[in-house]
Design brief:
With 171 residues, this protein is of the alpha+beta class. The chain is built from six helices and four strands; from the N terminus they run αββααβαβαα. It has helices at 9-13, 27-34, 38-47, 62-72, 90-100, 103-155, and strands at residues 16-19, 22-26, 57-59, 86-88. It has a four-stranded antiparallel sheet. The longest helix is centred in the last third of the chain and has 53 residues, at 103-155. The chain is elongated.
């Protein structure tokens, strides 16, 4: 096997969901990427449950499961979740590779974690860019308001004073 698995990052990114404010991946998606059955993955997790605190892995509630199903869209026949899935955070994914104990799982975990890191960098860059845009907008708004006032003065009609008539007055 080569040192790096060649699955496009987009494939991994499309399998990352935000649940309870955390970026997570579903047990079935991880099982597919690791080349194992979902029930085997879950069995290994249950055997090693002490390695998976709630910050690493949690089971979805019925409501979360229904919401997730609606996000995913129409599932093909037989592709429904019989039981609520386990979802794994970045740390849980790392721990999962040690529990599954296969070369593929280790290499796939490395690629998944690298994808999480790239997403975090993008999010940080996005926040920095938005902050800079907001700073520029606030400065430009002040400058624009001054420009706007000058334009208003130039474009506004001067107040019309009553004119004194010139010429003959009818008497």
């Amino acid at each position: 096997m080569s040192d790096k698995i060649t699955i496009p990052d987009e494939v991994i990114i499309n399998k990352i969901y935000v649940i309870r404010g955390q970026k997570v991946m579903l047990d079935r998606d991880l099982a597919e990427l690791y080349g194992v059955e979902t029930k085997q993955l879950k069995r290994q997790v249950r055997r090693n449950i002490e390695r998976f605190p709630s910050s690493f892995m949690f089971e979805l509630t019925k409501e979360e499961n229904e919401e997730l199903r609606s996000q995913i869209g129409t599932l093909k026949q037989g592709a429904h979740f019989k039981y609520p899935p386990f979802v794994f955070t970045e740390h849980g994914i790392l721990m999962l590779s040690s529990v599954l104990n296969s070369e593929l799982a280790v290499k796939m975990s490395v690629q998944i974690i690298e994808t999480f890191v790239q997403l975090r960098k993008l999010a940080n860059n996005y926040e920095e860019i938005m902050s800079k845009i907001n700073q520029m907008e606030s400065r430009n708004n002040e400058q624009f308001s001054e420009i706007y006032e000058v334009l208003q003065r130039l474009l506004s009609k001067p107040e019309e004073k009553p004119r004194t008539q010139i010429g003959y007055k009818k008497g």
